Design the sequence.
């Protein structure tokens, strides 16, 4: 923060920094006390804000966990259906292979 410039007539006779008036010192003291008084409020607000953010992050984490569990259940159901389907195809393939083998054996027995 920059201090307001004082008019030239208030400058000290030595040509250095201007002499602060009593009212100016009181005003700066009041501003300083005001800043000190705001610190507990700021700390309290920051603490409340941190609690709010933590609560929101926990809610988001819970929603993500629920979605991940739902996705896991869906993937498990999909995997189960896929395995069932593949086993059914494998069963039909084995049956077809046995039928073709039996026909082949019967063909070789009756044709010769």
Sequence:
């Amino acid at each position: 923060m920059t201090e307001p410039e004082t008019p030239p007539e208030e400058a000290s006779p030595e040509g250095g920094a201007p002499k602060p008036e009593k009212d100016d010192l009181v005003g700066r003291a009041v501003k300083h006390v005001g800043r000190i008084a705001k610190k507990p409020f700021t700390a309290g607000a920051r603490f409340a804000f941190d609690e709010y953010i933590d609560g929101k992050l926990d809610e988001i984490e819970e929603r993500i966990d629920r979605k991940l569990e739902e996705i896991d259940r869906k993937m498990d159901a999909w995997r189960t259906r896929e395995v069932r389907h593949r086993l059914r195809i494998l069963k039909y393939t084995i049956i077809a292979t046995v039928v073709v083998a039996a026909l082949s054996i019967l063909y070789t027995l009756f044709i010769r």
